[in-house]
Amino acid sequence: MEFSVRAAELTTLLESRITNFYTNLKVDEIGRVVSVGDGIARVYGLNEIQAGEMVEFASGVKGIALNLENENVGIVVFGSDTAIKEGDLVKRTGSIVDVPAGKAMLGRVVDALGVPIDGRGALSDHERRRVEVKAPGIIERKSVHEPMQTGLKAVDSLVPIGRGQRELIIGDRQTGKTAIAIDTILNQKQMNSRATSESETLYCVYVAIGQKRSTVAQLVQILSEANALEYSILVAATASDPAPLQFLAPYSGCAMGEYFRDNGMHALIIYDDLSKQAVAYRQMSLLLRRPPGREAFPGDVFYLHSRLLERAAKRSDQTGAGSLTALPVIETQAGDVSAYIPTNVISITDGQICLETELFYRGIRPAINVGLSVSRVGSAAQLKAMKQVCGSLKLELAQYREVAAFAQFGSDLDAATQALLNRGARLTEVLKQPQYAPLPIEKQIIVIYAAVNGFCDRMPLDKIAQYERAILTTISPDLLQSLKGMFMLKERIGRILPKIILLSITLVFICGSSSSVPPSEAGLNHAPDPTAPAEPVAPDPDVYHPLLDDNTRSAELDERAGFHFAGLSESDKKNILDSQVIIDRAIEKALLSDGYSRDELNELSKRNEIRGFLFYPKAGVSSNKNEARPRNGAGKEKWACGSPSLDYLGCPFGFLSKLTNPINPGLRRPCQAFDSTLGNATSKERESERSLNSRKDGSENIAIVTVSGLRETGLDAYRTKIVSIYAQTIHIGGKLEASIVPRLTLECYDGVFQFVPTKQNPA
Description:
The protein is α+β, with helices and mostly antiparallel strands. Among the domains are: 16-96, Elongation Factor Tu (Ef-tu), domain 3; 99-134 and 145-351, Rossmann fold (3-Layer(aba) Sandwich), CATH 3.40.50.300; 388-511, ATP synthase alpha/beta chain, C-terminal domain (Lysin); 565-599. The strands form 4 sheets. An 8-stranded mixed beta sheet has the order 8-12-11-13-14-10-15-16, sandwiched between helices. A 6-stranded antiparallel β-barrel has the order 1-2-5-4-3-6. Strands 17, 18, 19, 20, 21 and 22 form a 6-stranded antiparallel beta sheet that branches. A hairpin with a 2-residue loop joins strand 1 (30-37) and strand 2 (40-44). Helix 11 packs across helix 12 (415-430) and helix 12 runs antiparallel to helix 13. The longest helix is centred in the C-terminal third of the chain and has 24 residues, at 570-593.
């Protein structure tokens, strides 16, 4: 049989076969496990592998190549090595370790590889970023100039932190390092609520390294209850995780934070703590047979932390103006900050917050050592208003520590030294703050302003906390609102603050000590809402009211006030007198509800043992302090807040009553102890201040504070049953307002007073 082969057909057939030929071959470079143990696998055959490349074992466990040697590759295993045997195949993945990043991570808890461990399902809508990237260069950076508020008075005033800064938190175990970090996260809740754009929001990344699982679970619960998880990411490499995961976790968290930094947003990352990462890295290095150095750490342990912390930066405007702020935590042993790892990280960071065990156990919390703590670049980002009020704070605390050390050995101290000790003790008390209670920056400014300017120098130490609550309760919400966006204390605010502080001091002096008995347990009756519109007062003929008689009330008012009303119009004077009637009626109602009979009230009123206090606008007062005295010849014992020291401040308020201090009956003027701390002002400044406080219609606000008090056997023996104090603001025309003194109630039981918020009207 003959076969005839046509060349054209054969060519066509071959060409079609070649054209349709398709190969689907995947080439993997593989190696074999030579030895495995202690989380380290020695693999032979991976000649082209990269340093830091991910590999996958036959059992599905992954690892990372760290040691590239001539004969084999040293691989650290992410997970348990019990499923890996000698001779098992190992294949390259061709990729460097990467983790998910993006806003989809917010509110999630993940491990060091970015795998969710919170039981809420897989991640969605995210990108992946390498854990090891180069830090931004010099040209891409910008100087730190934006504040990052922690909500802690001691930090924001003494060691301020800016966005893009790296501030170390260092101290022994159980000194409050994690508490500072958590408070910072919680404080961003109120900061983010004020943000007007995405670029102002601060996102948080918390990296837990080598901590107990129960500690991480407790942290998640705290953040969840405070609604702080919505802007936070938690990366957890707990104590039960292998050393490679504890080593990798900070880099993974940093990659997640860099997503916000590189997209024009702001992020805060907390490494808690890098000491455990260094220990994990030492364990890996020794098992990889790397030569040990100081304290058995490998030679590149400095580079371990420097390449991590250098990635925290403030980007330039050309590269998006984002920032990544780092708060690394280092645990010391017996307060030794000169150890290897602490000195390394101190030299890398831009400052440190040093915590001491001794301060912690003395009740000074946060237990910050002001002398050792420093912020090298944060002062450039500190609010100008805060910088104004705390300029001398650190120096005064340093002088206090120096003098306090010598004062322990001697009892005879001169007046200047004693004053320094008194001021330092009160400054230290003011800087104390409970855990998980961050304070807005505008409230910090007011409290520190009061402490630095000596307004609490005579206040007992156990009353400092009550005084702080009083001043923050008394201050006008409008003033707080103005301080929020104020980068510098304006002249007007600087003149108003002393008045508000003095008002708070007066309230504390009137109130006595704070009560630990809740009002409900003490059987106290709450006052009626003072913000409700005042109804016309119908005088009760059965109750003695000296101010209700038109013929005598002017003289009686003048006598009780120790002040004349020259310059006030008749209508204004009548409105003030009518306001006093409201006070007396409120006292009457409170005492009648407590079981007093009308006969008892009549007798108490006649003996002038029920007192009402009224803040009223002073009129006809000369700028000369000598002419500011009462015309009726009353002496200092009748002079309350209308003292010359307050005239210097241009204060438009004075007290109406013979004021006797419940704490110290000999101190008739609650503000006289502060005269030495107040500065003088020219008559022109005082006149300017008076015009500043005047309303457009020519009238001024007056604030009424009503007090009912009972005196039984002389000045030193006060026995007060149930007493209510109402605070409210009333316009001269009788219209209720809320501009100077917010509504609050001060209640007293057996001579012990406390602040109780007064229920507000929905309107």
